[in-house]
TrEMBL record:
EC number: 4.2.1.49
Catalytic activities: 4-imidazolone-5-propanoate = trans-urocanate + H2O
Domain Urocanase Rossmann-like: 214-437
Name of this protein: Urocanate hydratase
Database matches in Gene3D superfamilies: Urocanase like domains (3.40.50.10730), Urocanase superfamily (3.40.1770.10)
Family the entry assigns: Belongs to the urocanase family.
Top EC category: lyase
Molecular function per GO: urocanate hydratase activity
Amino acid sequence: MSTLKEICSGLPLNPLPPNQGRDPNVPHAPIRTPNLTAEEERLALRNALRYFPPSHHATLAPEFAQELRQYGHIYMYRFCPTLRMRAYPIDQYPCHTRQAAAMMLMIMNNLDPAVAQFPQELVTYGGNGQVFSNWAQFRLVMHYLSEMTEEQTLVMYSGHPMGLFPSLPSSPRAIITNGMVIPNYSSRDQYEKMFALGVSMYGQMTAGSYCYIGPQGIVHGTMLTVLNAGRRYLGSDDLRGRVFVTSGLGGMSGAQAKAAVIAGCVSVIAEVDEAPLRKRHEQGWLMEVTSSLDQCIKRIREAKSAKTPLSLGYHGNVVDLWERILLEFERTGELLVDLGSDQTSLHNPYNGGYYPVQLSFHQANQFMSTDPDRFRNVVQESLRRQIKAINKLADAGMHFWDYGNAFLLEAQRAGAEVQKVGGGATEFRYPSYVQHIMGDIFSLGFGPFRWVCTSGDPRDLAVTDNIAATVLEEMSANVPDRVKQQYNDNIRWIREAGKHKMVVGSQARILYSDQKGRVSIALAINQAVADGNVSAPVVISRDHHDVSGTDSPFRETSNVYDGSVFCADMAVQNFVGDAFRGATWVALHNGGGVGWGEVINGGFGLVLDGSDEAAKRARLMLNWDVSNGVARRCWSGNSNAYETIQRTMEENRQLHVTMPFPVQDEHVLDRALQG
């Protein structure tokens, strides 16, 4: 069994560790199909071997070539550590600075088998959200972090550690970029080749930025989405007896079961893969499991009638579920579903992100690598069937939204009837959850703020929970009503968080907060570390899916209507601004959520160690991290953002934002254009 010290000592070369291959006891990523030419295979092998001295090439080359041909990528399984991957307490990491130790903790949490979707392929969530491209990179990064001083910065190129470079103590300790590809070459097919060559990587969002906190990270956002969907579509946030149907129980989508029950509704979630379904059931997040459609219908009726919360996992294809619910409606006239969505990983539709109804799970895994063209056609036919059933149920009164997973985008590409008559480039028959539900919340400056207690002690998490709730309760007395509702939702969430047992992996918490709340919570936690009320530093972060972190025309910025929806200045400016305002590490990614080439997003980590310097960094960086996006949304014409940034300027006299003047008389435009 390897140790933390051994993992941090660099690549084990003398002797090489034994090649254990793939562990049959953990889930594995689908086989990739990069379609490399013979010369490209040669290049991929050459690129992989450059991590090792020539004396080992004769041993490693054949096994790397086998991995490439068998799995579509060189993961270097031989170098996968035998040490149990998890977030060890910060003091156990051998290093010179606690900032580096905090990053080590976060990296190992992303690869914890209890957290990661495909741990041996270094995939945290989303089917292909990589932490690194191979295990040599992991070991080199851990070694560099153990050697790092406070006058060095680790530079990461798409999973590859370029090295430690001299910098200032005030500089970030790591700068991460993932998938930064010249725009004309940012296609899905090009990505598959570049990943196989080991030169680029899809970091999703918090996978490649080392900030994932397990499915809890999205439980809260999903709960708020369902709650606010009830308010918007059903006229009430009392969801007892209301039925929500969706799909996916994997890395991110696994949150749906827990979130729906917290929101109080009846939820049925389809999942074709038994492993994540069983995992969520064992965690207690999924109350019941069945592979019978008859049982699904029976339990929906019973829970709907009794108005009792339910999370029911259907082990089967969601298309079958939608078609059966439609059949019940056509037979009886009873509409069994109120709210509907989908969380399959359709950013990755042809490589395990979506399983077509015509094939079994195992058949699909085989077809996607042996006959990719036929598999693509079958996926598109399945999407057309799924949309056909959803459309009929929506016509009958169900409310459906896109969850920002490229579902409607890929359905449109498949020829399904999802177009919106007279709609813009990012509008479909159904809204995205940002357009109708969460967009206004972002424009108020609210987004997914999170923290990790690096001691690993649940008592520290309980203290920080109480700090956050107390801060929000004090602040909620002096805010406008629309802001107060968001505060109240989050106070309720944080007060009940411990009861819902959502910690998986690191001792972490998430809540939605606005700019003022984030700064106040961070400063209060930093003071608690200084006073010894929290026993070790705390890492603050956020999901990239936030006010300012992501330019994504089909998700985070889908409610931007001034023509800038396909521009990415906001996310890039955020990354740069966070870096020089005090972040411990920053990341900028191509892709994330909706898919490669569709999104630019970024994130950060900031270590609160109880020092005055940490407080200064948190105040400066967090204010920018929210105001940037609110200012952009204000300039695009969002009235919530206008009011929010106006209030922020009144509170901070150093902030001066260019404010838009709306056109009040449309006839001015008509006359000018006619002339």
